[in-house]
């Protein structure tokens, strides 16, 4: 049985006072752990606050991106080693907003994935198709291409300590969730793709679903055979909603 993981992607939201309240509520409810795991992904400046408040609790924390480089003249970038110093366990890699708004190609995402793995972090690799791609019937081709670029760069060994998140772009922040069956189909496809290289690893790989997960739809999504939790955007900013989703897991 794979453990479920509920990961809150705060995106560019937060503030010291507001974070304190939100984290306090999470610590009270799930800080001692339970049947599923939880993690929060805060903006870089708040990593110290997350570390300070969450260390010693069952709630993990991480960043929303990282540089593919280890160090050097890369103004504005943050390395894996820096994230490790702030206690990060995970880092999100290849979120669709990074791909579409900041021009991250499959190759860039693969390089970031590798930087995370080499730096001792667990990457959460996001894969997902746009609405146009789904309507053209090329969902598997797109997801397969995104996945293969990382496999080629990191090898199957690179996935030994990784998490995958399927996030259909058309479902992110739109209130339009994939149906449990639509999500399950893609999750099974991704697991199958990994199984070609390593069936044992594929069986234990956590594959999260992301895209308008809410307290109302979480249980049904998480009930599908290949859905091992969620990457939660909007609902992760409201303690009550995030905790209800954790409870569903
Ligand atoms: P959403 O975002 O839950 O607000 O749709 C998910 C994500 O982008 O990770």
Topology:
Elements (H helix, E strand, L loop, with lengths): L4 E5 L6 H15 L6 E5 L5 H8 L4 E5 L16 H6 L4 E4 L2 H6 L4 H13 L3 E6 L3 H5 L3 H16 L8 E4 L13 H18 L1 H6 L2 E4 L4 H8 L6 E4 L6 H10 L1
Parallel strand pairs: 1-2, 1-8, 2-3, 3-4, 4-5, 5-6, 6-7, 7-8
The protein binds 2-phosphoglycolic acid.
3D structure, described in words:
The structure is a single chain. The protein is α/β, with parallel strands linked by helices. The protein has one domain (5-248): Aldolase class I (TIM Barrel, Alpha-Beta Barrel), CATH 3.20.20.70. Helices cover 45% and strands 15% of the residues. The protein has eleven helices and eight strands. The protein has an eight-stranded parallel β-barrel, surrounded by seven helices. Helix 1 links the parallel strand 1 and strand 2. The radius of gyration is 17 Å and the shape is globular. The two termini are 13 Å apart. Bound molecules: 2-phosphoglycolic acid (PGA). 2-phosphoglycolic acid (PGA) binds next to strand 8.
Number of helices: 11
Mean pLDDT: 97
The low-confidence runs, each spanning 5 or more residues with pLDDT under 50, are none
Which fold name is given in CATH as the topology?
TIM Barrel
- By CATH reckoning, the class would read Alpha Beta
Task: Sketch the major β-sheet.
Answer: 8 strands, parallel, barrel
> How many separate domains?
1
Helix content: 40-55%
Oligomer: single chain
Walk across the major sheet and give the strand order.
1-2-3-4-5-6-7-8
Number of strands: 8
CATH architecture: Alpha-Beta Barrel
């Amino acid at each position: 049985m794979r453990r479920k993981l509920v990961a809150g992607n705060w995106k560019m939201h937060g503030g010291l006072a507001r974070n304190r309240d939100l984290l306090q509520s999470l610590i009270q409810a799930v800080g001692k752990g339970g049947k599923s795991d939880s993690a929060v992904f805060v903006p870089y400046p708040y990593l110290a606050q997350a570390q300070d408040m969450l260390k010693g609790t069952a709630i993990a924390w991480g960043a929303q991106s990282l540089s593919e480089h280890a160090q050097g003249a890369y103004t504005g970038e943050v390395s894996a080693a820096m994230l490790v110093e702030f206690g990060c366990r995970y880092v999100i890699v290849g979120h669709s907003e990074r791909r579409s708004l900041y021009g991250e190609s499959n190759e860039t995402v693969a390089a970031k994935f590798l930087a995370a793995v080499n730096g001792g972090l667990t990457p959460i690799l996001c894969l997902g198709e746009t609405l146009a791609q789904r309507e053209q019937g090329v969902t598997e081709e797109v997801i397969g291409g995104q996945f293969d670029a990382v496999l080629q760069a990191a090898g199957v060994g690179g996935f030994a300590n990784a998490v995958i998140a399927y996030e259909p772009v058309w479902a992110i922040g739109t209130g339009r969730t994939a149906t449990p069956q639509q999500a399950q189909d893609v999750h099974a496809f991704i697991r199958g793709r990994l199984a070609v290289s390593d069936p044992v690893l594929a069986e234990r790989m956590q594959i999260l679903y992301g895209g308008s997960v809410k307290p109302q739809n979480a249980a049904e999504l998480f009930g599908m055979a290949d859905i091992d939790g969620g990457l939660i955007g909007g609902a992760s900013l409201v303690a009550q909603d995030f905790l209800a989703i954790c409870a569903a897991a």
